[in-house]
Amino acid sequence: MLNVPPQAFPAPGSQQRAAAGGRTKVPLKPGRSLMDWIRLTKSGKDLTGLKGRLIEVSEDELAKHSKKEDCWICIRGLVYNVTPYMEYHPGGEDELMKAAGTDGTDLFDQVHRWVNYESMLKECLVGRMAFKPIAAPKGMLSEREVLGASARDTTPSYDWFQTDDLITVVIYTKQKGMNAELVIVDCQHKRLRGEIILDDHSYLVEVDLDREVQDDFAVNIAEKVGKVEIILKKKDHFQWKVLGLPLESHNTLLRRMERGLFYRKCKLVSKTEVTHDTKLFCFMLPKSTHLQVPIGQHVYLKQIIAGTEVVKPYTPLLPFLPLDFKEPFCQDGAHIYLMIKIYSCGLFTQALDHLQIGDDISVSNPEGNFKKSQVEALEDLFLLAAGTGFTPMVKLLNFALAKVDCLRTVKLIFFNKKDDDILWRNQLEQLALKDERFEVQFILSEPAEDWMGKRGKISSALLSECMKRSKKDSKVLICICGPTPFTQQGLQCLEDLGYSQEEMHAFTA
Q1: How far apart are CA 189 and CA 330, in angstroms?
Q2: Residue 8: its pLDDT value, please?
Q3: Half-sphere exposure of 339 (CA within 13 A, CB side)
Q4: Which residues of the chain have pLDDT under 70?
Q5: What is the distance between the alpha carbons of residues 134 and 63, in angstroms, rounded to a whole number?
Q6: What is the pLDDT of residues 297-328, one digit of tens each?
Q7: pTM for this structure?
Q8: Cβ–Cβ < 8 Å for 318, 309
Q9: In principle, which of 218, 303, 359, 502 could form an S-S bond with 231, CB 3.0–4.6 Å?
Q10: 301 Cβ partners below 8 Å, 6+ apart?
Q11: Distance CA 472, CA 325 (A)
């Protein structure tokens, strides 16, 4: 559950470090699967050692429980006895021990803050931390006060107006370059939630509306001045006295990592076979949702399995590879496509595969650290993908070939085990024939005897052979995505070959 990135490379604080810090799974003993853990938590066994009591835990007391046979960890003010969970943790005991006897919130958030630890560890809850009150030094301001004092003119605000038929909520972001990908709106059961993404912060308008509105609404964006209008249709013709009751997070500007994830129910509308073990799922967003997933960002799917919430990240992609790059392919904003490998022993993917057309699943807001500005003025783009790590490359390919005028070379180096594992092979080969800037190279680690292409796994020698700049000092970006060991090994190889951190990006999730 808890993990931290490797200590050697990338450097602390870099985007690559955040991306490469994913969990490396370790082999679990028989009888130590997620389902086995769920069964144990429901068995009635005392997992805290406190016989059902909840206690207040001091810092000194927490520090005493720092051994494998007696391990307590604090997450967001709640203390858990994770000793019985040790053998069930997919990242291994050593990863949990990095936070033993301490507050592990930051370590937890670095990798998978989306995990519903409260549900997973609810039977291990020891109690709440007893924090000592700390007086702020005289003259110090809180973050919100600092924000108001130093950036008062750029702090977002909102207002609302009405006619007989419409309610218009106006958000003044005071930021230029506002676009549809930065605006997320949900209106469910009278609850209006409008979130505006402002770099690593988000501004939220969240109210329990005074009266009911219709499901569909409009979002208008004035990009140059950063004004966002959410136009709701009244169900009646009454004049509202107030917009509604403000909810807890209403009218706040917070770091996105502190905001928390928001989910909405989406319907499965199609499920198409891509390879022998991979399928393309299409989910329909509710009419009451406005959401567009930016390039390189992922969403989380949440399912209830055996009474426990289980969550996994996936990167949405286009439904196909466009061959005409006059303009980037734009989806209708109503569907999310996910290419997912179905594992024979995978609890989550098996449950996904058993969904029927029309079934619901919870889909979160997008997250990710890739920015389109990384592609601007780019001359060479190299994409290193393994398996379904190919998915974030699809939108990036589409955008780069359509919008980056100075682009000379785009090369996808696609690693798989066997020939029949290759995703969208025909589409990729058609794209290479259609656009002379694009090249794809397939590399197999377990090829058949008649395979004529390259063989092997990611290595410095292989990458040196496959990646050539179009000119000596060309501006280059190398994106990498795949299983955590693949990504970490790839980043190390690129560093060994002399590429700078600014020239590398590892996709998160």
Answers
A1: 29
A2: 35
A3: 22
A4: 1-26, 111-114, 131-153, 325-332, 508-509
A5: 20
A6: 999 999 988 877 888 899 999 999 887 756 66
A7: 0.75
A8: no
A9: 218
A10: 311, 312, 313, 314, 338, 348, 352, 361, 362, 363, 364
A11: 27
